[in-house]
Amino acid sequence: MGKGRSKYKQGLPDPIETYHPHLAKKRKVDDLDDAKPSKRTKDDKKTKTAPVVPEKKKSKASAPVNGTKQKAAAPLSAKKVAKDVPSRAKTNGKKAPVPLESHEDSEDGDGDEEEWESDVGDAPEGKLAAMDFMDSSDDEDELDDDDEPDLDDDSDGSVFDSGDEETRPIFSDDDLSGSEAEEQLTAANIAGLTRKLDLQIAREAEEAEAELQDQITTNIGTDEVKPFVIGAATGSDSEEEDEASKLSKLTPDLALLRSRINDVVRVLEDFSNLCEEGRSRTDYTEQIITDISAYYGYSPYLAEKLFHLFSPSEALSFFEANETPRPLVIRTNTLKTHRRDLAQVLINRGVTLEPIGKWSKVGLQVFESQVPLGATPEYLAGHYILQAASSFLPVMALAPQENERCLDMAAAPGGKTTYMAALMKNTGCVFANDANKTRAKGLIGNIHRLGVKNTIVCNYDAREFPKVIGGFDRVLLDAPCSGTGVIAKDASVKTNKTEKDFLKLPHLQKQLLLAAIDSVDHNSKTGGYIVYSTCSVTVEENEGVVEYALKKRPNVKLVETGLTFGVEGFVSFRGKTFNERMKMTRRYYPHKYNVDGFYVAKFRKVGPSPVGSGNAQTEELIEEEVVEMDVDGPDGEEAEKTSGAFEWSEDEEDAKMIEKNLKRYKRKKGIDPRADPSKAGTKEKKKEDEETISPAKANGEKRGKVTKTKGFVKVSNDKPNKKSK
Ligand SMILES: C[S@@+](CC[C@H](N)C(=O)[O-])C[C@H]1O[C@@H](n2cnc3c(N)ncnc32)[C@H](O)[C@@H]1O
After folding, report:
1. Of the candidates 570, 701, 588, which has an alpha carbon nearest to the alpha carbon of residue 359?
2. What HEC string does 91-134 produce?
3. Distance of alpha carbon 306 from alpha carbon 316, whole angstroms
4. Pocket of ligand 1 contains residue 391 by CB under 6 Å
5. Exposed (0-12), middle (13-18) or buried (19+): which is 658, by Cβ within 10 Å?
6. Does 608 sit in the ligand 1 pocket, CB within 6 Å?
7. Closest ligand 1 atom, CA of 413?
8. Ligand 1, atom 27: nearest CA belongs to which residue?
9. Ligand 1 within 6 A of 108 CB?
10. Which of 329, 423, 436, 598 maximizes ligand 1 atoms within 8 Å of its Cβ, making it the mutation to test the pocket?
11. Domains, the chain
12. Which pLDDT value is given to residue 609?
């Protein structure tokens, strides 16, 4: 059976709210087994026979576990371990060409097409033409400047959970003619869904059994047991032990490592009761970061950065979720078909699928398929695109309207551009830009295949906007990023992102965001919005960038994204305080929603950009302003003042506030505030902050007086706007 014909089963995704160490321990070893049958006996045996901690170690702090004394696993040097021994992540064979993996990728992520190509290679002869449409984004080109971040590292695609069994979503009103059709569809799908349910029930039974076994063998759940998890303070008790310790550094016992990770989580979450005498929280935290780094194969630097985003148990859920692929999702191209029709055709071809959830009317989650989805006649005809569910979100937040003029600043390979065009029903105009020429070619391929007719592709460094062209109604900046949200898809992120990347990328992102803001027409009758998104979960690439933009451009304000789910953005993080409105931004996590990690922020431009802005690349970055805020910490008075300075709590206060801030800004820049006749904010149109993001509604929304496609004319930035609409 060729790869393309393999079944790629997709279990029903379960959002994991909280990590249960005692459950996961067993599951983890099973995962290892699944991935590498040859390891099965060994690991399995170890889990069942080895105690959580070896019994030899003698220490006052050790507590009896199942009648034995616990022994701490030797502390491991993560770097050493990562170098010398196969980590858990490496042993699970994720890099092996597993059909499930290749099908998990989506077209709007880097390198996705490469994997699909191999599928097509195995497809029947007549379908080989599919390669023409799919060889678009396997290129690894970078921007010319060596010092620029690696532009091709961003794998933007990710996919979304369709929801749990109880709340199985139904097809939306717009694409179902009636309940009869739905019934037919469900009946046709029933075999696949039943199989899926059976698998889930079996898995739950297995987990329950594992939990029972676990409690028997380790006494986890018995509160009196204090885990002894950190190496003895005085060092080893014997030579024999030293040897054992050395050996374990070379060949870490994954089950033991795992066990210690679980134990440390327990300690950190109930520190006063479970901590060992003389050990600080920092000791435990350092230990768990070292262990996570070794167990999952992350650089210690990144493991630490990611660990601190969550509570200890949630962090573990996050790392765990990164070990499993997200579900495969396709987006119906409503320019060519309806979701119901597409679903029916694909079901007839042997595809098991269902709508991804009530929040989307165009997404279908695929559980199983008899055919390569990148080579069906419907695919070739552009009836759908393989697209991560999380990739829908920024476009839904942007909510482009018919006849508007929109810019997608970093567009290749075009998953979001083509969705924008579909929401706009091929009216108005979308400028789809990407700095990478080769990737831009892939963008053109997708645009053609999906029948998009309102889009102009261009190839600029987006920091050159709005010098290239400005005055847009809406701008999407799906920024190049570190990809810490898509580790399940690209495990190389675990080790190849350095501290330097987390300085360079935010710098670029800030420049791009300023350019995005400056490219929007604040006088737009229907729009005036900017959406910033990344497939990264780090604060410096998200809230840090947004905060910077708010400070640099007091003429924008954060507004609700309109997205119906997602965790609120941080208003404070490890001593940094952000604008209060930051909670309007949305964070998405794999362990929480079974989507790739993502971030979405929406701004409304309420006044003109500062005179003289217009080339974000050359504009000086005022990092100090952000740093200034940090020093006082979250509760500092100064921080309050600073953050409040750019905050609009009441709409009616906007005009005054904007004017004041603009004057202050101009004075700071040495510009006479009276030189600019435009009164910031006074012409602000009355608009709802909360936009409806339902694509159907977006498509059907009442429009202003905008008529046809606006011409490809240079509109000077924020000058009294005379462009013809
Ligand atoms: C996250 S991907 C975009 C994915 C795309 N929005 C989609 O949905 O298919 C980021 C893109 O930014 C592009 N890029 C990087 N630096 C850029 C720059 N300075 N100007 C414009 N595009 C840039 C990269 O080539 C890459 O295609």
Report:
1. 588
2. HCCCCCCCHHHHHHCCCCCCCHHHHHHHHHHHCCHHHCCHHHHH
3. 10
4. yes
5. buried
6. no
7. 9
8. 412
9. yes
10. 436
11. 7-97+205-321 (no CATH), 108-179+325-387 (3.30.70.1170), 390-652+683-700 (3.40.50.150)
12. 84
Q: What residues pair up with 456 in beta bridges, in sequence order? A: 431
**Closest C-alpha to 442, from 105, 130, 117, 138:** 138
Q: Is 154 in the pocket of ligand 1 (CB under 6 A)?
A: yes
Ligand 1 atom showing the smallest separation from residue 408 Cα: 6
Per-residue tokens: 314: 């949630």
pLDDT band at 199 (very low <50, low <70, confident <90, very high): confident
435 in ligand 1 pocket by Cβ < 6 Å? yes
- Distance, in Å, from the CA atom of 484 to the CA atom of 326, rounded to the nearest integer, reads 14
Q: Which residues face 604 on adjacent strands?
A: 529, 557
Please name the helix (run of DSSP H) or strand (run of DSSP E) that holds residue 365, with its range, or none. Answer: strand 363-369
Any idea of the CA torsion for 629, 633, 635, 638, to the nearest 10 degrees?
A: -30
Per residue, what are the HEC states of 216-265?
A: HHHCCCCCCCCCCCCCCCCCCCCHHHHHHHHHHHHCCCHHHHHHHHHHHH
Query: What secondary structure, in 3-state letters, does 530-592 show?
Result: EEEEECCCCCCCCHHHHHHHHHHCCCEEEECCCCCCCEECCCEECCEECCHHHHHCEEECHHH
| pLDDT band at residue 251 under the 50/70/90 scheme | low
- Tokens found for residue 677: 């006749």
Residue with the smallest CA separation from ligand 1 atom 10 is 480
Q: How many other C-beta atoms lie within 10 A of the C-beta of residue 95?
A: 11
- Tracing tokens 């630097």 back to the chain, one arrives at 301
Task: Write the ipTM.
Answer: 1.00
CA distances from 695 to 298, 358, 411, 438, 485 (A): 38, 12, 20, 30, 25
- Position 406, amino acid: C
Find out whether 699 and 402 touch, Cβ atoms under 8 Å: yes
pLDDT tier at 200 (50, 70, 90 boundaries)? confident
Binding-site positions:
410-416, 434, 461, 478
Q: What distance in angstroms lies between residue 480's CA and the mean position of ligand 1's atoms? A: 5
Q: Which residue has the tokens 């929603």?
A: 593
Ligand 1 neighbour 537 (Cβ under 6 A): no
Query: What is the distance between the alpha carbons of residues 435 and 410, in angstroms, rounded to a whole number?
Result: 7
Mutate to test the pocket of ligand 1, among 108, 139, 151, 490 (most ligand atoms within 8 A of CB): 151
* Phi then psi dihedrals of residue 81, to 5 deg: -65, -45
pLDDT at 131: 29
Mean pLDDT score of the chain, rounded to an integer?
68
**Overall pTM surpassing 0.90 (yes/no):** no
CA torsion through residues 374, 375, 378, 381, sign: positive
pLDDT at 635 > cutoff 90: no
What the block records as the tokens of 211 is: 């939990």
Cα–Cα distance for residue pair 36/597, rounded to 1 Å: 27
pLDDT in tens, 317-366: 999 999 999 999 999 999 999 999 999 999 999 999 999 999 999 999 99
Residues annotated as catalytic (active site), given as ranges: 535
**What per-residue confidence (pLDDT) applies to 675?**
54
Question: What residue numbers does the annotated binding site for S-adenosyl-L-methionine cover?
Answer: 410-416, 434, 461, 478
If we measure between CA atoms, which residue out of 669, 572, 532 comes closest to residue 613?
669
- In sequence order, the β-bridge partners of residue 568 are 586
> Residue 505: CB within 6 Å of ligand 1?
no
